């Protein structure tokens, strides 16, 4: 009952071993100055970050202006690309963690699409950034919507075209010159935490949206209770995959800078308590830890489900879940940076 349905623990242990091997190779190049970039805060743009902690030989800074947590320095785009394309751990993650959890991920996406419904009209032009194997496209089509996709990987582009018969724009979103314009909705699911320059991506989204169009996205919420409880050891605090760690307060700075205003947000995650339980060391001597692990081991599955349910509902209601869902409106007059 303590295993995570979309990130099974024993596979994550194996993934982490492979990742540590990949990181050794990565850091050989990353330690060279020409492969590093210093950057300001990805949320507010100020350069007043103070080192907060190190993890896996990456430095995590906390912005003194907006409290955003971010990796700095970051690798160059080219070096980051080699990590995504050539690393054994990423390949393992896709094969052994992502693919076996597809059904659960589909269910999560269907819920997400229902959450979007009040903000989407049936005739809206919808563009998804980073469509991967098309979990959102499938759920959107089930609603009678007609999404288009942006995807980098050639294999996935072909899959999306064949499987869903939709327009697919291949390439890096931020640099793409041939994207459709006057979109009503742009969606980005778990994208902005990975980006070297999220403002650039949001400015690009602004440029393809119609007036009053909406940007709808999800990302980790580091003001969530699981991040606050676990701290730097949280498994999603993981560079160079995750470079930006936002909360609703500082992501609002980012949105405003890119020409958006927040229309709605919530933290709908439902799995947080499982993460926290999984992070408790088996030999912990803390009274709170022993209380929780004894309860988890001793209660029936039904009782545990009831406890889990009550706690996750309380977390959602308090907007303390580890993932946030944000709807932002494109502002008409925005002094945004010109993007590529
Ligand atoms: Zn900041």
What does this structure look like?
It is built from 12 helices and 13 strands. The radius of gyration is 20 Å and the shape is globular. The chain has a 7-stranded mixed β-sheet, sandwiched between helices. A 4-stranded antiparallel β-sheet has the order 2-3-4-11, with no helix packed on it. It has a two-stranded antiparallel sheet with strand order 1-5. The mean pLDDT is 91. The protein has a single domain, classed as Rossmann fold, CATH 3.40.50. Helix 4 crosses helix 5 (135-142). With 340 residues, it is an alpha/beta fold. Bound molecules: zinc ion. The site of zinc ion (ZN) has 9 residues, from loops.
The name of the CATH architecture is 3-Layer(aba) Sandwich
Whole-number radius of gyration? 20 Å
- Overall helicity: 40-55%
Shape: globular
Number of domains: 1
Mean pLDDT: 91
H-E order: HEEEEEHHHEHEHEEHEHEHEHHHE
**Spatial ordering of strands, largest sheet:** 8-7-6-9-10-13-12
In short:
With 340 residues, the protein is α/β, with parallel strands linked by helices. The protein is 41% helix and 21% strand. A 7-stranded mixed β-sheet has the order 8-7-6-9-10-13-12, with helices on both faces.
């Amino acid at each position: 009952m303590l295993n995570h349905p979309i990130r099974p623990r024993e596979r994550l242990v194996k993934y982490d071993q492979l990742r540590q091997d990949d990181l050794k190779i990565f850091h050989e190049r990353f330690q060279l100055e020409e492969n590093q970039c210093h950057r300001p805060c990805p949320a507010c743009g100020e350069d007043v970050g103070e080192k907060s902690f190190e993890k896996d030989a990456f430095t995590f800074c906390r912005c003194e202006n907006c409290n955003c947590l971010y990796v700095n320095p970051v690798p160059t785009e080219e070096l980051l690309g080699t990590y995504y394309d050539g690393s054994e751990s990423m390949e393992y993650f896709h094969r052994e963690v992502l693919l076996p959890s597809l059904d659960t991920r589909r269910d999560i996406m269907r819920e997400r699409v229902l959450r979007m419904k009040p903000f989407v009209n049936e005739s809206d032009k919808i563009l998804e950034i980073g469509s991967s194997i098309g979990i959102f496209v499938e759920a959107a089509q089930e609603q009678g919507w007609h999404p288009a996709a942006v995807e980098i990987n050639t294999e996935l582009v072909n899959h999306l075209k064949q499987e869903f018969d939709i327009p697919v724009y291949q390439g890096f979103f931020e640099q793409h010159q041939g994207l459709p314009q006057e979109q009503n909705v742009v969606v980005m699911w778990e994208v902005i935490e990975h980006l070297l320059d999220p403002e650039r991506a949001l400015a690009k989204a602004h440029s393809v949206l119609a007036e009053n169009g909406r940007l709808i996205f999800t990302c980790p919420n580091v003001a969530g209770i699981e991040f606050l409880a676990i701290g730097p050891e949280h498994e999603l605090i993981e560079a160079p995959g995750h470079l930006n760690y936002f909360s609703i307060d500082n992501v609002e700075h980012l949105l405003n800078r890119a020409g958006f205003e927040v229309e709605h947000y919530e933290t709908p995650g439902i799995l947080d308590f499982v993460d926290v339980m999984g992070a408790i060391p088996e030999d912990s001597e803390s009274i709170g830890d022993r209380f929780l692990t004894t309860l988890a081991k001793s209660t029936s599955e039904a009782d545990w489900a009831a406890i889990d349910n009550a706690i996750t509902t309380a977390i959602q209601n308090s907007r303390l879940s580890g993932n946030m869902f944000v709807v932002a409106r494109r502002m008409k007059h925005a002094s945004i940076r010109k993007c590529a």
